[in-house]
Amino acid sequence: MYMKKQSKLFLMVAISSIASQIYVNMFVDGFIIALSVVMMGFFLYVFKDIEPTLACGLIGIFSPLFRLFIVLFRGAPIFPSLTLVLPDMAFFFAYALIFGVIFNFLGYNSYKKYYIRLVVSDFLSNCAEMATRFIVLDTKFGWNQISGLIILALCRSFFIILLCVFSDVYTSLLTKKEHEDNYKKLAIMASTFKSEVYFMEKNMNEIEEIMKNAFTLYRTLAQEKYPKELQNISLEIAKDIHEVKKGYKRVIMGLEDNFLTDLNYAPLKLNEIMVILATHVNNNAANRKLDLTFSYSVQTNYIINNHFAMMSILRNLVSNSMDALEGNNMYKGHIKVSCSDIIKDNEKFCRILVSDNGPGIDKNLIDVIFEPGFSTKYNKQTGDINRGVGLTLVHDLTVEKFKGQIEVTSTKRGTTFKIDIPVQVFDIPIKEDEIQ
């Protein structure tokens, strides 16, 4: 969440003013080394869009006034208290001029340049404060104090730089995590789009056959001299089907050209896919208020080139499990995905098991769950039945994209989908010590 400039400025002035009460006396009586200078230097770096001259000037007003209020609240006389804070104001106003105007060209991009900017501003501003003390309070200072001010400027500026470095590192970590979270969401979304495009392409072939049949019917009716009304109806059907096909084609081209083309990312490791899947399941379960535990295990961390297809398979299977658990009002649901190596018919396979502890599938439906259009889900309010393409998609992707096999076993205590994929469709597996 981004703060407005006014909010940043208020926060900077407020914290720096409060920090002015954390200090130690050094060099001469009344000369303090306050934490406010450290906070000011840090905020000037963090809030780079704030005008430094304005910020330092406001701190130069409110920080001494806050200190004056504290001193007067403790019962000190007014005039001596005023002379006490005037040197502080001289320091901050000098800092505003030196840091914000004279050395503004050094900028913030380089730690080295910013450190020089801080050191010079700190030292010269302290000299301005010492000069004010000499004029107002007749405070004497010599070369020993000047050397001390140099050391103070070097050390305090170094501490500010450390805070700036820590801030940059922390911000970088947050940004990296945000990018990772966004990529996980994008991978789920892309797998959904890929699934839809896959079915649309299959439907286009079926639409093409229907269009040919409709046009053949029109020609037959025309040759057999059937009534014109029937001929026109058959011709209109062929035209309408052709328009549907063109609409499908435009949608597919739009998705592939404007979205899916840019998603040809590098292959993912199998455990990386599982991490993305876990994020999706946990977020989905939280949104649906499901008491659900998701776990996974990976024996061999294969590299998956077609990771969007793999994500579609797994996402559809776990989504079906979540629907079953939700519909059954399970008190505690559990979904587990395991990936292990097996040998079958002298060939090595990666076996993926997706199991849940839901109510199971009716044994009379086991043989038809992969059929297109099959679905047991419907909207209780509208009576609309779902499209029933999820498990069909899982079956087709397993067989056509990964040359694998899929089976399902189910009892009243849960359902398990078993997928066997030949390992030659994957790249070389990664060793366990390379798994991160």
Question: Keywords for this structure?
Answer:
Arp2/3 complex 21 kDa subunit ARPC3, 3 domains, 61% helix, alpha+beta, five-stranded mixed sheet, elongated, 436 residues, single chain, 10 helices
Under the CATH scheme, the architecture of the largest domain is 2-Layer Sandwich
Q: What's the CATH class label of the largest domain?
A: Alpha Beta
Q: Note the total helix count.
A: 10
The major beta sheet can be summarized as: 5 strands, mixed
End-to-end gap: 31 Å
What is the 3D shape?
elongated
* Total strand segments: 9
Runs with pLDDT <50, length 5+? Answer: 378-388, 431-436
The percentage of residues in β strands lies in 5-15%
Give the tally of structural domains.
Answer: 3
The CATH superfamily of the largest domain turns out to be: Histidine kinase-like ATPase, C-terminal domain
- Helicity, as a percent range: 55-70%
State the order of secondary-structure elements, H for helix, E for strand. HEEHHHHHHEHEEHEEHEE
CATH topology of the largest domain: Heat Shock Protein 90
Present the secondary structure layout:
Elements (H helix, E strand, L loop, with lengths): L4 H15 L3 E3 L6 E3 H12 L5 H22 L4 H25 L8 H27 L5 H81 L4 H31 L9 E2 H18 L4 E7 L4 E2 L2 H21 L5 E12 L2 E10 L33 H12 L3 E7 L2 E9 L14
Parallel strand pairs: 4-6
Antiparallel strand pairs: 1-2, 3-5, 6-7, 7-9, 8-9
Helix pairs in contact: 1-2, 1-3, 2-6, 3-4, 4-5, 5-6, 6-7, 6-8, 6-9, 8-9, 9-10
